[in-house]
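Colleagues,

Please find the record for the two-part complex below.
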Amino acid sequence: MERKLQQLFFALSLLALVLILVAEWQASTPSWKPYQRKFLQLEAQEEPNAVSKAAVLATPLAINQVVLPGLQRVDRCTTCHLGVEDPTMKNAPGPFHYHAGLGPHVPSKFGCTICHGGQGLATDMKDAHGNVAFWQTPLLPADYVRASCGRCHKEGDVPGVPELTEGHHLFDTEGCRGCHKLNGVGGSIGPDLTEEGANHRSPEWLERHFLAPNAVSPGSAMPNFHFTREQARALTYYMLSLTSGDMGSYYSSERLIPSPEYGRQLFVEKDCIVCHAIGGIGAKTGPDLLGVTKRHSAEWIDEQLVNPELVYPGSSMPEYDLESNARKALVAFLASATPEDAQQMLTRKGHPLTPKDAAIEAGKQDFARFGCAGCHGTELQGGLANPNAQGEQVPSLLHVSDDYTKDEVIGIIRDGRMPPLDNVKGPTPPLYMPSWKHVLSDEDINRIADFLWSKQQQKKESW
Amino acid sequence: MKLIREIWQSIVRRDPLSTDKGKSELVFLNVWLHIHPAKVKKENLRFKHSFYLGFITFFLFIILVTTGIALMCYYRPYPPQAYQDMKDLQFAVFMGPFLRNMHRWAAHGMVVCVFLHMCRVFYTGSYKKPRQFNWVVGVLLLLLTLGLSFTGYLLPWDQLAYWAITVGTNIGSYAPLIGGQLRELLLGGHSVGEAALLRFYVLHVAVLPSLVILLTIVHFWRVRKDGGLSRPVWKLKPQKQEALVTIGAPAEAVPLHVAAASTDKTYGLMEVVTGKPIFETITPEEEEDTVFSYPYAFVREAVVLMGTVTTIMMMSLFMNAPLEEMANPAVTPNPAKAPWYFLGLQELVSHSALLGGVVAPALMVLALLAIPYFDRNPSRRPGDRKWVLWVFTLFVVANIALIIVGTFFRGPGWAWVPPWVHVVARPE
């Protein structure tokens, strides 16, 4: 008995030793090492002589990582994808090819997962590509990777990604905010979309959902807007780009693309034409800006825009708080600005709005921006199906002045309302009027009412 | 050579182990081993007598301390770095997964073994006089073990951790008057967040382990002072009870008396107390039943130690500790479940928050603590204590059944869903 126990003790100790060795072997043969060896062999092939070949092959294997505090991530993708920044690897096989067309978005500054998704910290393929349980952002399918541009470039057009602009435009004009919140603004009938891009929904799901909401999530209150395939794709792109994640100061300065179009927009917005002229067209307070980029360097103009008094003591030009990319965009616009541009700007300014018109215009914009159009229609025609609500649909607003006083309408917008039921015992209608008092100011609500009444007026006049 | 021998002898200051004196001295001249008696009863060494559950628990604790210290080198107790450190352990730290797995499985194992150890002690009636207080210490150690496991549960800072602790601490807040404040004190706020993570970390790596070590010392000390393992029932000689003298707490109604010269074994305190100071006196026949701790007890302990270690290592090689998405207060899993050992509680809470979450567990703990003082029946023979055995068995079975129901039979909305039914989550 005693002998056997001693033997058992030694056997168990031996087993423990073996187990430790197995664990160590397991730990020292991770799946990324073969990739690195293969890559080194590929590199060694290029070397001219045996000595340098041996030197390349002797490179110690190591996990490569890009630490990106600004993007709150650590990407270890380059542990296997070793050739992404090496143009000579253009035709390399497997995971080693060069990533062409990155422009300024070099992996050492941006990592990979911010655009591609996946699990940056992982060091084996399955986990890294993120198709594993409990990882919410697997690699985006190639068709949708460009949607990620919108995660940083939130304003202005993104060159090469018209889908994002289109999606953003559709979101603003189709009244999505009527039901969905985005960055705190919008209704509460549908889910908040602020973090939609960070959610684990697959792009395919989103796209099918836009084409036929009820086919993908049965019982959804979302109406079918009969989007085309292109529109559904554009909206999917826009959804994938939605995240409130803080991109850090370095990346947020990259949000705006310094395109001439954006510069032109800024030129109008800041009313530069009030002081400056282009080729003689415009005001004479400041210097004529035609060919200014030829007279001065881009740096000089940049400095001028940041601090006019430092460049020209006593200058009457105000300091505009412009981001560096906004300044670059202005310079880009000035390089190509013509007197015709100035003429166009001046003619647009030609009709100053009366205060009343301005209020109605603002109301119209609010109506579109806060998504009223989503249910009530861009032409106020209503008509979205709403089972078991009176008339089975969302009411038209074209005759609202016949049934309500302005104050009543203001009250309904402010406090919201459940639609009157068609059948009292029937189910609750999916759509209802949310309360807007926490989203819209009283002034906004008054303007929207003004806008609605202006439409009634037009109608009566046309009668 | 002479120097080497001198150095060796300065460290090991005992006679050779071939002699009985050497064997005794190995035990009582060694600070680590002297918690053992020099000689132990043969039947106490039998595996079936105690299943060595106390030892296994202690060895698991040692594994936990060792792996825990190693894990501390890689862990920052604030979000979201805590979660990132888990991923580092999983993907970048050499043998990181193995380390974490060992800690995880040893922790679960310790909860199980402490409970089984308690059951064993109950069924053999070993909490009876004079061992009552040691039972109380044992129950406190059970609670501390649960506390250690619970505080450790939050540290990975994933969804599993976050919601298990949210649910767990919510159960605590059902206590009237102090519940809410207790929860706030534990969490350092109204919900699980940065402050909670730091507090749980401090409790997990400093406060609770220190308490466990202190109470374990008391527990072991009392085992020795109360006469080692209780003897098997079939060896009991009830009539001997009256002859006992209790050091520190004289047996009631029996005055200290001068024992007649006896061949019985005595040790210690000869100048202070007369009489036979060990509770279960040893007769010469019984003397025959004892063996030296070296090697008989030590080899068995060593086998149990290596058995425990290899089992945990084996599990760690083949089973990975779970790690879900990073904690996200905005996304509640349905159902959100507490750690498995609290799922019985959660099941009770689902029926009545106050009764199930506060009254039942409080009564349960109080009853456990009070057992040795209420069960005044001195007999340890199963035939004499049918009633208590049935009640305790009911308690054990009910606990296990509730945990099984909570773990396997509860789905979204805490609805009854058997494990063979697959529920498809409906997207919102």
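Chain A has a mean pLDDT of 84.

Comments are welcome before we finalize the supplementary table.
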